[in-house]
Amino acid sequence: MLVRLVRAHLRPYRRDLAWIVALQFLQSLAMLYLPTVNGDLIDEGVAQADTSVIVSKGGIMLAVTLVQVVASMVAVFFGARTAMALGRDIRGAIFQKVQQFSAQEMGRFGTPSLITRTTNDVQQIQLLVVMGFTMAVSAPIMSVGGIVMATRQDVPLSSILLLLAPILGVFVAFMVSRLRPLFRTWQERLDGINQVLREQITGVRVVRAFVRDDFERERFGRANNGLYDVSLGVNRYTALLFPSVMLLFNLTYVAVVWFGGHRIDGGAMEVGALTAFMSYLMQNLMSVMVATFMLMMLPRADVCAERIQEVLETASSVVPPASPVVPDEGELRGLLELQDVEFRYPGAEEPVLCGIDLVARPGETTAIIGSTGSGKTTLLNLVPRLFDATGGRVLIDGIDVRDLDPLRLALAVGFVPQRPYLFSGTVASNLRYGRPDATDDELWQALEIAQARSFVEQMPERLDSPIAQGGTNVSGGQRQRLAIARAIVHRPRIYLFDDSFSALDYSTDAALRAALAGETADATVVVVAQRVSTIRQADRIVVLDLGRIVGQGTHAELMSDNETYREIVLSQLTEQEAAA
C-alpha cells in the first residue's frame, strides 16, 4: 500500500528522482574509495616514509572528499524538495477527495480521523521519504560496496561480515513484525484522543453546565493512557533494537581487530589494509543503522499509507453527472418537485423517507413540520445533494438534481443548515462566501433583512470584525442571523431553511420573516421548523411522520382535518391561539 501510494504521487518528479539516485551513487562511490586510498597512503607512504606518496594520496583524498560533499549536498537538496512536494500533493489529494464526500462518507470517517489522516499520517510518510532520499538510497550501496571493498582488502577476514549479515537480517525482521500492529493501534488511539479532545473543547459549555469536569477528565485520561501504553510498547522495542545492533557490531569490531592483528603478525596482511577494512566495517555499521532506522519507521508509514489510501479509494455516494445539464444563468425559476422519493442509509432495515411527493413553487413558502426523527432535515439535504435519494427523483424546473451541473445547482440553492457554521475570518468574508463580488451595500442590506445589522454595527470593526472558527465568538442567535444573511447575499432561486429560526426570540423571528418575505417574493422558500408560529402563515404546510407525508395544506385546513398536525400545534399553543 505504501509503495503504491508513494509511486503514484512521485511520477511527476521522475527527473528529480534520477538526479537523487545518480548523486547518491556518486557520493557512495567516493566514500567507498576513501578507505582504500587511506590504506595505500599508510602502507606505501607512512610505512615507507615516502613524502611524495603521502602528498599525492592526500591530494586524491581531498579531491574525492570534495566530490563526495558536493554530491551529498545536492542530493539532500533534491531529496528534501521532492519529499516536501510529495507531502503537499498527498495532502492536496486527500483534501480534494474529502471535498467530494457526501455527508454519508463524512459521518463514516469522522472529522477527527480525517484531520489526523491529512496531517499526522501524511507527515509520517513524508518523514520516511525524506530519510529515504537523503540517507537510505546510499545505505544499500554502502553496505554491499563496503563488503566488496572489504573482501578486496582481505578475503578470510571478510567472512566475519558475511556471518554478521544474516544474524542482523533475522533480528531486524523479527522486530519489524512486532512493531507493525503496535503502530496501527498507535494511529487508531491518536484518532481517539483527537476525537475526545475535539469534543471536550467544542462542548466545554455543556461539560461545565452539567458539572461533568471529573467525568471528562477520566475519559481523556483513559484515551491518553491508552496512547501512552502503546507508545511505551513501541519504545520498548526501539530501545532494544539499537543497542542490540550496536552490540553485534562492537563484537564484530573486536573480532576484526583480534583476527586482523594475528594476520598482520603472521605477515598475511598489511596495517593499511586492516585500517581500510575497519573503515569499511564502520561504513557498514552506519549503513545498517540507517537501514534499521528506516525499517523502524516503515511499519508506521505503511499503516498511515493504508489509512490515507482508504480515504482516496472511497467513492462518494454523490457522483457528479457524466453529461451535466447546464441551463443558462438566470434560466432556472426554482420550481422544486420531489417525486416518490425514498432515502435509506446503507444497511438500514427501514427507509428514513418513503413515498415523498411534494411540489414547492416560486413565490410560495412551503413549510415542513413533524416530530423529531420524522425525516425533515434529510428531506432538505436531498435538494443540494448532501445526500442522493435512493429512490424517486428530486427535480428543479423538471431537471433531476443528479443531472444538473453542480455549479448551477449550487447557484440555484441557498441552504441554511440546522447548525449554521461560520468560518474564521470576518463578518464580510463569511457573508461573501456564496458571492465574492457582493458590495458592502449588499452586505448591509442582507444584514438588515436578517435582523443582524444592529449587532454588527455595534462591533468595533463592523463588517471587518473578526469571526472565530465556527462562529464561537458570537451567540447562537447571532450566528443564525449571519447564516441567513449569507444565504440572502447568495441570491438563490430556492431558499432552504432547516430550523434556522430556533435561536431567535419571537419578535426577532416575526420581524425577520416579514423582511424576508419581500426579498424572496419571486423565489421558492422551504422552511423546516419546530416552532408553529414560524410556519403557520406558510402557503403550504407539509406534515411528516415516520418519513411519510401524512398531510398537506394551510394551517386552517390542517387544524380541521389532520390529527398529527393538530397535536403538534396544541402542544405549543392553546385552542384560541391556534385559531387566531
Provide key terms for this protein.
six-stranded mixed β-sheet; 12 strands; ABC transporter transmembrane region fold; alpha/beta; 580 residues; 2 domains; Rossmann fold
CATH superfamily of the largest domain: ABC transporter type 1, transmembrane domain
Number of structurally distinct domains: 2
What's the arrangement of strands in the largest beta sheet? 6-9-10-3-11-12
Q: Unreliable runs, pLDDT <50, ≥5 residues?
A: none
In DSSP terms (H or I, runs of 4 or more residues), the helix count works out at 21
Instruction: Provide the CATH top-level class of the largest domain.
Output: Mainly Alpha
Structure notes:
- The protein is α/β, with parallel strands linked by helices and 580 residues long.
- Helix content is 65%, strand content 10%.
- The chain has 21 helices and 12 strands.
- The strands form 3 sheets. Strands 6-9-10-3-11-12 form a 6-stranded mixed β-sheet. It has a 4-stranded antiparallel β-sheet with strand order 2-1-4-5, with no helix packed on it.
- Strand 4 and strand 5 (399-400) form a beta hairpin.
- Helix 3 packs antiparallel against helix 5 and helix 7 (155-202) packs antiparallel against helix 9.
- The longest helix has 53 residues, at 213-265.
